[in-house]
Amino acid sequence: MKIKALIEKGLLIKNKSSKHEISGSITIAEKFIEKAKGNQKIEYFDVAFSLAYQSIFHSIRALLFKNNLKERSHSAMITAVKEIYKEKNNLTELLQTADSYRITRHAIQYIGAGCTKEDSQEAIKDAEKLIDEIELILYSKNKKIN
Question: Strand, helix or coil at 122?
Answer without folding.
Answer: helix
